[in-house]
């Protein structure tokens, strides 16, 4: 049984953990408890921890302190979404506890786990039970008890995992949303996956990440590795394989796909047709493909996040911090060309492509902040799952960073409108926070799966209306939801309404939505804007 660990062992443990998360990320993603397609916990945790792998592999015989520091720093800068940020905080605490240590025993490792938990709890404003925090806390407590029995790292880690798994199983009973869905916490699964892989590495059974294209790679990772594009015009990378169930000519499919996007690769044989295409309408592409045969595999990825990384890559290489040319600057997060234009028109120095299902990392946000030529930079996350990543940039730059806690694009727009360049930073912060609270945000999207939420029976393919963060209603007719939202706004006597329509809504259809609101809210000032946002057919603000 392994009693101590040094830098080399810790490095192997982290690399193994990153591989395990990568392998299991889809399983973790699928623990989404709400039908809005935001199941990205596994992806966020994978991208966060994998940010440390390259740095660790480059490190030449690192000490335990160095290996832990490299891990904590890389995770912090690569943190994506709340789950990624919490993961980075756990390892930040571990690093802090192991500072100045060449090797540690079970007692020291147990203490490090506990400091990691303390760091995470301290950073989360309102810790909730039944989450990754609960699992990590109870696992760390078990580790400390185990260290009193046997001062061996292997024994301590094993006991932590056993207790953590029990805690994980109980999350379904602690969180009402999890209980209704009948699933355990996705972040908790991720943390147990990390600890289990670290233990495997400690025992000499390293978890190895499958290489792209290997037979052991998860199906959703299949890709055309020889195909690259530097200029992404279309939003969705769509890949699938369909069986050849009839005599239809694959060349006809190729011709159709050429009109639906770019970056097309089509390979066919007697049994299957394999397709890769970048398109703005993956649903229509797949519907057409189904006329040739049944789907064997399918993968659809939104490439806006990758596009943001390309745009900021030069700044990342140079690691330049723009010299202040003015007292204030602004950085906003949104998805969609129309919304990007709105924020730039309002004075945003930088707009990061991201939002629901596309959480930018702390590093992405930091790069945008550093490119802003201002002393104080206000950041507008515009999504509750990006706020924590944005807050981690504070202290990572010489600039003064102020994160306005905007949870939606309409809140971000309202907050920016409240900005007064003649006021000091504190006055502006208070004014913008007050402004965001005065905005009612409504969104219409679709259900990715059958579910039940707050008494609503939701079926795959239903339109879903959200009022704030609450479920407003579902329907097969989107106009019914629009009318219901309009009536809700009218009852609250809101007099300024803005309707942003998404990339899947054409102008003619959007104008019908406008007429619904004009009829129900005749005294309100109503604007219709092409937001071009993905995921949400409509985003509506009312003040």
Q: What can you see in these coordinates?
A:
With 543 residues, this protein is α+β, with helices and mostly antiparallel strands. The protein has 21 helices and 18 strands. The strands form five sheets. It has a six-stranded mixed beta sheet with strand order 15-14-11-18-16-17. Strands 4-5-3-6 form a four-stranded antiparallel beta sheet. Strand 9, helix 17 and strand 10 form a beta-alpha-beta unit. It is globular, with a radius of gyration of 25 Å. The N and C termini lie far apart (64 Å). About 4% of the residues have low confidence.
Determine the structural class based on helices, strands and strand pairing. Answer: alpha+beta
- In percent, how helical is the residue content? 40-55%
Q: Which sequence of strands runs across the widest sheet?
A: 15-14-11-18-16-17
How much strand?
15-25%
User: End-to-end distance, in Å?
Assistant: 64 Å
Based on CA atoms alone, the radius of gyration comes out at: 25 Å
Mean pLDDT: 87
Global outline: globular
In the predicted model, the low-confidence regions spanning at least 5 consecutive residues are 212-231
The number of helical segments is 21
DSSP summary, beta strand count: 18
Q: Main beta sheet: strand number and arrangement? A: 6 strands, mixed
């Amino acid at each position: 049984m392994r009693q101590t660990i040094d830098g080399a062992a810790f490095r192997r443990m982290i690399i193994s953990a990153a591989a395990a998360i990568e392998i299991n990320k889809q399983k973790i993603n699928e623990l989404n408890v709400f039908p809005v397609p935001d199941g990205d916990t596994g992806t966020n945790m994978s991208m966060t921890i994998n940010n440390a792998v390259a740095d660790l592999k480059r490190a030449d015989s690192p000490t335990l302190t160095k290996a832990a520091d490299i891990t904590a720093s890389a995770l912090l800068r690569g943190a994506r979404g709340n789950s990624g940020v919490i993961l980075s905080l756990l390892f930040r605490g571990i690093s802090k506890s192991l500072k100045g240590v060449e090797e540690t025993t079970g007692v020291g490792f147990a203490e490090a786990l506990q400091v990691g938990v303390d760091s995470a709890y301290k950073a989360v404003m309102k810790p909730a039970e039944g989450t990754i925090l609960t699992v990590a806390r109870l696992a760390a407590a078990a580790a400390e008890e185990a260290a009193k029995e046997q001062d061996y790292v292997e024994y301590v880690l094993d006991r932590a995992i056993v207790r953590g798994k029990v805690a994980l199983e109980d999350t379904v009973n602690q969180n009402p949303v999890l209980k209704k869905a009948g699933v355990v916490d996705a972040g908790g699964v991720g943390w147990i996956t990390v600890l289990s892989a670290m233990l495997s590495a400690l025992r000499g059974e390293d978890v190895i990440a499958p290489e792209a294209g290997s037979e052991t790679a998860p199906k959703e990772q299949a890709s055309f590795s020889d195909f690259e594009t530097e200029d992404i015009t279309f939003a969705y990378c769509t890949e699938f394989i369909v069986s050849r169930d009839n005599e239809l000519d694959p060349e006809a499919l190729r011709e159709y796909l050429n009109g639906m996007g770019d970056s097309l690769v089509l390979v066919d044989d007697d049994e299957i047709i394999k397709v890769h295409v970048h398109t703005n309408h993956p649903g229509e592409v797949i519907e057409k493909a189904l006329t040739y045969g049944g789907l064997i595999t399918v993968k659809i990825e939104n490439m806006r996040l990758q596009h943001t990384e390309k745009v900021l890559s030069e700044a990342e290489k140079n690691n330049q911090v723009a010299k202040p040319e003015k007292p204030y600057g602004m950085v906003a997060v949104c998805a969609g060309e129309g919304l990007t234009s709105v924020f730039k028109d309002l004075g945003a120095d930088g707009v990061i492509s991201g939002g629901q299902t596309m959480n930018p990392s702390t590093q992405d946000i930091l790069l945008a902040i550093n490119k802003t030529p201002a002393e104080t930079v206000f950041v507008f996350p515009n999504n509750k799952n990006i706020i924590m990543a944005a807050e981690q940039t504070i202290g990572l730059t010489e600039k003064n960073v102020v994160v306005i806690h905007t949870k939606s694009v309409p809140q971000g727009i309202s907050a920016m409108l409240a900005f007064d360049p003649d006021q000091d930073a504190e006055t502006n912060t208070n004014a913008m926070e007050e402004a965001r609270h005065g905005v009612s945000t409504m969104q219409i999207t679709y259900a990715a799966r059958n579910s039940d939420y707050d008494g609503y029976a939701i079926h795959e393919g239903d339109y879903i209306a959200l009022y704030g963060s609450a479920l407003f209603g579902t329907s097969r007719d989107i106009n019914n939801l629009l009318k219901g939202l309009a009536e809700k706004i009218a009852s609250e006597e809101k007099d300024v309404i803005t309707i942003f329509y998404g990339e899947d809504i054409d102008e003619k259809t959007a104008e019908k939505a406008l007429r619904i609101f004009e009829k129900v809210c005749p005294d309100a000032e109503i604007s219709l804007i092409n937001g071009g946002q993905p995921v949400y057919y409509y985003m509506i603000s009312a003040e």
